[in-house]
Amino acid sequence: MIEFRDVSVVYANGARALNHINLAIGKGEFVFLVGPTGTGKSTLLKLVYREVLPTEGTVCVGGQDITRLPGQRVPFLRRRIGVVFQDFRLLPQKTVYENVAYALHVIGTPYREIRKRVGAAVEMVGLGRKMDAFPGQLSGGEQQRASIARAIVNNPPILLADEPTGNLDPEMSQGIAQLLNDIHIRGTTVVVASHDAAVVNALRKRVVVLQHGEIIRDATGGGYGPDEPEIP
Amino acid sequence: MSLRYLDFLLQETFTGIRRNLFMSMAAVTTIAASLLLLGAVRLLTANLNILAASLGSRFEMQVFLRTDVGREERDSLGRQVSGLPGVSGCRLVPKEEALPDLCRRLDGTVDLDDLGGVNPLPDSFIVRVSDLKEMSAVAARIGRLSGVDEVKDTHQAAETWAAVTRAIQMGGTAAAALLVIAAAVIVSNTIRLTVYARRLEIGIMQLVGATSGSIRLPFLLEGMFHGFTGAVVALAALVAGYGYLHDGARHLVPLMELLPPTGSVFRAQLGALLAVGPALGLAGSYFSVRRYLHV
Questions:
Q1: Looking at chain B from residue 201 to 230, which residues have their Cβ under 8 Å from any Cβ of chain A?
Q2: For a Cys-Cys bond, which of B89, B106, B210, B295 suits B205, CB 3.0-4.6 Å?
Q3: Domains contained in chain A, CATH given
Q4: Low-confidence ranges of chain A (pLDDT < 70)
Q5: Please, is B292 exposed, middle or buried when counting C-beta atoms within 10 Å of its C-beta (0-12, 13-18, 19+)?
Q6: How far apart are the C-alpha atoms of B219 and B222, rounded to whole Å?
Q7: Which region holds residue A70: left if phi is over 0, alpha if psi is between -120 and 50, else beta?
Q8: Smallest Cα–Cα separation from B50: which of B106, B90, B100, B112?
Q9: CA distance B72 to B101
Q10: CA angle A149, A134, A100 (to 5 degrees)
Q11: CA distance B14 to chain A (A)
């Protein structure tokens, strides 16, 4: 589903974010990208939705080399990928329903379809009773659920989450981890960048450990933390 | 593009306008001011041209005959004038033609019936010279002929008038052009602020796969809306202002020929301003969208 072939990213300021990364993520897999801050986890996700282009190597999504994708095709790539961030990125003046619907409005989805899909997505994340609430009236966990609903409302085959529990307390974090797992069970390929050991260890999925822009461990059913071996 | 999507785009456009209401008003006001000046210059120039035409051609003079001159004497005078050196043409304007012509040019403000059937105008000749340098000499020779009451040598006035018209037209157009540029800059700045205020929405739109065209369109529509509103305000001010000034000028100089403040005169302005206004808004917003909206 997602494949990185000998990918390196060097930013304009000379910082090397990724160094000769080779990684394949299969269809329907759940993968945690873990490692301390600044190891290239976010850059790896940005490569998938083409926010960043590699300096070297190729990135394939759904069998297509997206590094050669013309600029005007990028929006259509992004319609197949849902993205969730640590800071939720919800529009404060719109309700939960409107925030989720916004993702469909901007790509020209018909109103009837929007009503149907938004309702389903909001129910799926457990916010059915808070559709008319504004983000400011929700807890952090609920805001992240709304942002996940927005990411999955278009039924994308891939869901990327960049530190989705970074702003949440442990209890809420577990809830979000469970929600991501539920989405994965429905058949979505899920890639989560996190350094929240409790979340990673609770799900026991494939764990890819990054350090200084390189993969130092890739273990199925792995964990993360001081007890885990650093080298495979 | 479906109607509902258009509805969504318009909602986005008006959200942008509401967010920056103060700057939007500044943009509309500047556009209105520049278009008002542009329209005023156009109307002024059109009126000056009418006045210039009423002054006569630079190569012509008007020769008024005394009212006691009879038909035969008039014809003989015509032959004499035609035979003078330097005269290239001489056309008779009988008083029977002159009166309805004057009434028509004054746009019905003088009623023929009010004159009680008496025509106060004299017969006249329009005399054409081939060389402007000969004008004064020819005028003097005609003035000495018996039966001639007055020679109106208008070429000097016509020349001065044409120069004044040109100066006003050029100065006014330059001032309007400067204001138009200022208006485009203000629209551009307004759109830049809207882009900044809506960066979160723009980021989300990019993330969920909105095309760059559909991200840019609300900003371009916003610029065009400013331009259109400015043009409507300018037109309203022009219609009201011109009607007021026209009446004032008529009161001051009753026989002055001016464009009447009627629909046909304003329709010409309507087309021009409604084309220039939105184009101006579009140009300003396009610049900002290109410069500040990286999609």
A1: 201, 203-212, 214-215
A2: B210
A3: 29-51+70-205 (3.40.50.300)
A4: 225-232
A5: middle
A6: 5
A7: beta
A8: B106
A9: 24
A10: 25
A11: 15
Per the CB < 8 Å rule, is B210 touching A102?
Answer: no
Q: What is the ipTM of this complex?
A: 0.83
Terminal C-alpha separation, chain A: 24
Tokens 């008006």 sit on residue: B14
**3-class SS at B25?**
helix
Residue A72 to chain B, least CA–CA distance (Å): 7
Show the low-confidence residues of chain B (pLDDT under 70).
Answer: 1-2, 54-58, 107-115, 154-155, 158, 255, 295
Choose the mutation target among A106, A154, A155 for the interface with B, i.e. most B CBs under 10 Å: A106
pLDDT given at position A228: 57
What are the pLDDT digits (tens) for B212-233? 888 888 889 988 999 999 999 9
- Contact call for B200 and A83, based on CB within 8 A: no
CB contact under 8 Å between B1 and A102, yes or no, is: no
Instruction: Give pLDDT, residue A27.
Output: 94
* CA dist., res. B165 & res. B58, Å (int): 15
| Distance from C-alpha of B107 to C-alpha of B246, rounded to nearest angstrom | 13
Q: Specify the pLDDT at position A230.
A: 47
Residue among A175, A174, A172 at smallest CA distance from A197 = A174
Could you read off the pLDDT of A141-190 as tens digits, one per residue? Answer: 999 999 999 999 999 999 999 999 988 888 889 999 999 999 999 999 99
Contact A61, A77 (CB under 8 A): yes
Within its chain, how far is the Cα of A186 from the centroid?
A: 16
Contact in structure between A148 and A31 (CB atoms under 8 Å): no
CB B102 within 8 A of CB B121: yes
Yes or no: say if B66 and B143 are a contact pair by the CB < 8 Å rule.
no
